[in-house]
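Format notes (please read before filing issues)

Several people have asked whether sequences and structure tokens are stored in separate files. They are not. Every record keeps both together, in the order shown below: the sequence lines, then the token lines. Line labels are part of the format and must not be stripped during preprocessing.
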Amino acid sequence: FVDFGDLTITKENPSGNINSPTRGFWAGGDQAGDGTEAPSINRITIATTGNAISVGDLVKSTAGGTGTSSATRGIYAGGYDPAPASSTVSDIQFFNMSSEGNAMNFGDLTNHSKYNMGGVSDCVRGVFMGGHPSSVNTISYISIATQGDSVDFGDLVQSSYAYNGMSTGHGGLG
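Then the structure lines:
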């Protein structure tokens, strides 16, 4: 591995999986694991090495949120408030990756509040699966171009959390 650069602050449990064809983003997290929320949205340019820059803030700062995206819109869903008590949230937030700036409300997750979900996208539909607390088996989706609550998509074969996802743009794998 070669050192690429650093985030703007040390973060524990920020989102991943948010990217445009040229930029990568991390949002939220627990600042240095001390229970202080890190509301910032950090950006890097994928083709060049260098440190991240802060390009905006989340509406509601959480850790353990899940990211997904289209080519232009970044999505941050769920998470937990690291302090004072680990309360989970069902918020879905979005931001425009090209113009940057603060996130805005998108809608809510179905069923219940979750964190450490898997997130995938085909650039049209964002899909969230599994999650914590108490390992869940739900799968829900959103239409990335329009705002609104997520919709039930089905169930995983087995309840799971700390899921990771990947997509080729033609479908996702959890």
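For reference, the curators noted about this record: Confidence is low (pLDDT under 50) at residues 170-174. The chain is about 0% helix and 45% strand.
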